[in-house]
Amino acid sequence: MSSIVLIIILLLYLTFLFFIAHWAEKKENLKWANNPYVYSFSLAVYCTAWTYYGSIGVAANSGLNYLTIYIGPIIIIPAWIIILRKIIRISRLNNVSSIADFISLRYGNSRFLGAIVTLICLAAILPYIALQLKAISETFHVVTKTTENSLIFFDTTTYVAVALALFASYYGTRYVDASEKRKGIITAVAMESVLKLLFFVIIGVYVTYYVFDGFGDIYEQASVLENFEAKNTIGGLEQGMNWFFLCMLSLFAIFLLPRQFQVAVVENNRERHIKTALWLFPLYLFIFNLFVFPIAWGGNVLFEGEAKNADTFSLLIPQYFNHTFLTTMVFLGGFSAAISMIIVSSISLSTMLSNNLLIPYTFLGRLKNEEQEVNNKKIVTIRKIGIFSLIIASYLIYRFFALDYSLGSIGLVSFVIIGQLAPAFFGALFWRRGSRLGAIWGIIIGFGVCLYTLLIPYSFGITNTNNTFISTGFFNIEFLKPLALFGLDYLSPIAHAFFWSLFFNTMTYFAVSVSFKGNYRERNYAEMYIDIDKYSTNHENAFVWKGTAYTRDIEKVLVKFLGEERTQRAMAIFNAKYNVDKKQELADARLVKFAENLLTGHIGTASARILISSVVKEEKVTLTEVLKILEESNETILINKKLTETSNELKEITAQLQHANENLVAKDKQKDEFLDTVTHELRTPITAIRAASEILIDDDEIPDGLKKQFLQNIISESDRLNRLIDKILDLEKFETGKQKLNLTEQDIGVTILKTIEPLQQLLKNKGIFLSFENKKPYFFVYDEDRLVQVITNLLSNAIKFCPENDGIITVSIEQKEDFFKISIKDNGKGIQNNDFENIFDKFYQSDNQNIKKPIGSGLGLAICKQIIELHRGKIWAENNENSGACFTFTLPNLGYEN
User: Fold this and answer.
1) pLDDT greater than 80 at residue 589
2) For residue 31, what pLDDT is reported?
3) How does DSSP classify residue 178?
4) pLDDT confidence band for 34 (50 / 70 / 90)
5) Is 338 helix (H, G, I), strand (E, B) or coil?
6) Are 293 and 221 in contact (CB under 8 A)?
7) What is the mean pLDDT of the chain?
8) Closest CA to 90 of 79, 77, 105
9) What band does 677 get if pLDDT is binned at 50, 70 and 90?
């Protein structure tokens, strides 16, 4: 493929990324740019050109050693739910925008420590960015089959670097507050992560199943090559130690690399997104590495005896078979892997460069005296120039220093340098005694050892046996050989440098921290970092500060960077949160901390502290006072928590009481209605009996036939009165437990038929059809008289609510494993939804009846429920699908012993 065509393809691809970033940035609350999958795929910025190309080169030349770079992250990822969540919460509450801010804030807002961390990151990442540019350059020339031009202006990578610098400086500095979320950049990075994985899987499948006949075929052909078995085993204890240290190296890198901190912490929108990343990110790494071995050893088989760069096997194999499209696609995947790392790393480095070096040491005095618009413009300009300069500086490193080493070697050197932040970083999270001096001296000494054991040998040429420093050691002292320090000669140069640098770094950190106590600010932040969950709701309450401060002075500083409107809005939020009078003149520790947090995103933690300190008068606080204040703060938080819990409990109790009161009112109303009904029912027969009796007494000349009719009415009304009194007495017996069952073994079908028989004439009169199929006997133990009472009541209700002339009642029996189910259905009006729970109450009558006034005393269903429950059964009502209601009750299949 010609260079011009490939450049046009690259320009189109970059335009596509510009569009994705612009689209995501402009859309508000866009779910495609703010979801756990975008967050998880953005973490795959870890997979750079080193992963895409370099892993293949390592696998081809050294066997399984490439796996160590991925085993470390996978091992630690399950702990992300605790560690990463803690880091994210600390950073969000303190407005942290970089790893330099994170570390320096923990150790008392140390400006010097922030500067050291920034310099370490620059030393580690600039060569790493150069590595990505080297990969772009080498693969471009592989695809186009051209040679590299020594002139900068004729090198395609020059223009790629400039384009990336412009893209990153534009989209990476859209916000003055560096802690703001960059939706456009992150969405573009996530898209690149998906594409590079897709393209890598496609080339893997092509090599494995089209060039070769599967994994087995590749293994079989590769196994006959020289040193295949030796390269593809972990080896003995010595090689195992190398693996262990390289795994630890990558484990630290997944936390400490500035680009990983940027995407995992600063750009995190929701803590819950971590849960998706816990499984998706390891799966991503697994899929990526699935085809590294087949491509690497497939290349070794195809190009055996040829001097080929193993890093580029993924391009050389399709090119060997004249698959130009596939070759170009693989190149775009590698290009994606490189530019995503370059963009995110340059953004994070520029933030550190501005907030931890340039602003606190050079520009802070001038920014303090300018207006908000001027300050914002200057800060953004500093970061734009920073991003552009960093990428161009990396390009110059690539051009003049990084040409003689493989992708893997440069990447591992960067990992070792960034690993020097590990003791201070993890100590900040888990060790209260860690101090600023311990962190500073640990990093300096660790980097010094790294310089001695790795960087200087690399600058001389690590395989240069003619160099006396490498071969015989400093001053010809054997124990000081940089690649075998103190006689440790079985580790690889990377593992060796990592072990000794981190050993001296950690020992220094612990020794100095124990020997020299930190100041009160360090101990204060130590408590706030380690117990972040305790202080997360009222973070400013845990900040220890004593002195004199005026609200108006702090507001003036805020206005310089936030503007009048945002400052007033922030102050309103603060006053509402802590119930502070907006007219209050004196500021307390909470407002000091609140103001520092607001400024941190703009100018960094150290500069924010310096600015606020310039307008307040701070008094020294002893460590004893710090602990006392924190203890009081803890007590306040606990009291607030208990008050909140008590308040919630009171609300629940109030709600329960209110509900109970409503039920009592409803019950009382039902009772009144019941008494009214019962009084009416009692008065009706009594009135009829009295009227008939008075007529018989007053009129002696009544004919015998009429006299007999009056006497019959008296008897009928007396029976009615007796039945009503029996119901009330029955219900009282059931509720007090005095009622006993007369259990005998009966056929429930026969019992139902006995119940139906007296009702046949009533059914005939109303034109109701009753269906009951008594197919076989169902014998079990129950009180027949009481069940007749239940079934009679249910059938009477069904008859009462069935429509005239075309009513249908269906009675059915269903035998289950350990109980019988009896159902009585009708095609009447059905039951209202709000009646289902209440119709079995003794004081309840449904309003959904066929006449205006409810008929009956409202005791029938209540008695039915008591009878069924005394049989250890259940009864309920529901509506049929079409129309009508269905009453169902169950009876356990009990023997006499029950």
Assistant:
1) no
2) 67
3) T
4) confident
5) helix
6) no
7) 81
8) 105
9) low
SS (H, E, C) 786-827: HHHHHHHHHHHHHHHHCCCCCEEEEEEEEECCCEEEEEEEEC
C-alpha span between 793 and 863 (Å, rounded): 9
E-strand stretches of 53-106: none
- Structure token pair of residue 104: 């320096």
How do residues 771-808 score in pLDDT, each as one tens digit? 988 878 888 899 888 888 888 889 888 888 888 778 89
Q: What is d(CA 591, CA 552) in angstroms, rounded to the nearest whole number? A: 11
Main-chain dihedrals φ then ψ at residue 77, nearest 5 degrees: -55, -40
**Contact residues for 650 (Cβ-Cβ < 8 A; gap 6+):** none
Beta bridge partners of 824: 811, 887
On the question of pLDDT at 856 being above 60, the answer is no
Q: Is 420 helix (H, G, I), strand (E, B) or coil?
A: helix
> Token pair of 393, please?
């500086």
Rounded to whole angstroms, the Cα distance separating 161 from 815 reads 81
Six-digit token string for 791: 């079934």
User: What average pLDDT does range 163-178 have in this prediction?
Assistant: 72
Residue among 176, 554, 165, 519 nearest 355 (CA): 176
Non-local CB neighbours of 34 within 8 Å, separated by 6+ positions: 183, 269
| Number of neighbours of residue 856 by Cβ within 10 angstroms | 17
N residues, the chain: 898
Q: Is the pLDDT of residue 106 over 60?
A: yes
Query: What phi and psi values does residue 346 have, to the nearest 5 degrees?
Result: -65, -35
Beta bridge partners of residue 819, listed in sequence order? 892
3 state DSSP class of 781: strand
What is the SS3 string spanning 106-159?
HCCCCHHHHHHHHHHHHHHHHHHHHHHHHHHHHHHHHHHCCCCCCCHHHCHHHH
| Strand 885-892, strand 779-782: pairing | unpaired
* pLDDT digits 0-9 by tens, 480-504: 888 888 888 888 888 999 999 999 9
Alpha helix positions (H), 604-703: 605-613, 623-698
CA-to-CA separations, 545 to 504, 523, 742, 854, in angstroms, rounded: 35, 12, 82, 75
Contact, 424 vs 439, CB < 8 A? yes
Can you tell me whether residue 875 is helix, strand or coil?
Answer: strand
Q: Cα(407)–Cα(405) distance, rounded to whole angstroms?
A: 7
Q: State the pairing for strand pair 546-548/744-747.
A: unpaired
pTM of the model: 0.70
Pairing label, strands 885-892, 819-826: antiparallel
